[in-house]
């Protein structure tokens, strides 16, 4: 959840920066047009940010690795087909 909030903050920062840039240049653009520009121009930054946050999301500590929860442990079962079972 923290990654999503950080992503939203980065996106809003890029949007407000682009909006300020066009305001300083005295270019009248509607917010949706600025939003499209931000998505196109800064998509690599946004994608890189998402990749970096997801890379740290799946890490676990050593204790969790040594003693996993029961739901992550392997499960085994046996199938008997056509009476082919040995004693």
Q: What is the rounded Rg?
A: 25 Å
Helix content: 55-70%
Strand percentage = under 5%
Quaternary status of these chains? Answer: single chain
Q: Indicate the structural class.
A: mainly alpha
Uncertain segments are: none
Question: So how many helices?
Answer: 4
How many angstroms separate the termini? 53 Å
- How is the biggest beta sheet arranged? none
Secondary-structure element order, N to C: HHHH
Shape: elongated
Q: Would you report the number of β strands? A: 0
Mean pLDDT across residues: 75
Structure in a nutshell:
The protein is mainly alpha-helical and 87 residues long. Helix content is 62%, strand content 0%. It has helices at 2-24, 31-41, 43-57, 62-66.
Index terms:
87 residues; mainly alpha; 4 helices; 62% helix; 0% strand
Structure overview:
The protein is mainly alpha-helical and 87 residues long. The protein has a domain at 2-57. Helix content is 62%, strand content 0%. The chain has 4 helices and no strands. It has helices spanning 2-24, 31-41, 43-57, 62-66. α1 (2-24) crosses α2 (31-41) and α1 (2-24) runs antiparallel to α3. It is elongated. The relative contact order is 0.10. The mean pLDDT is 75.
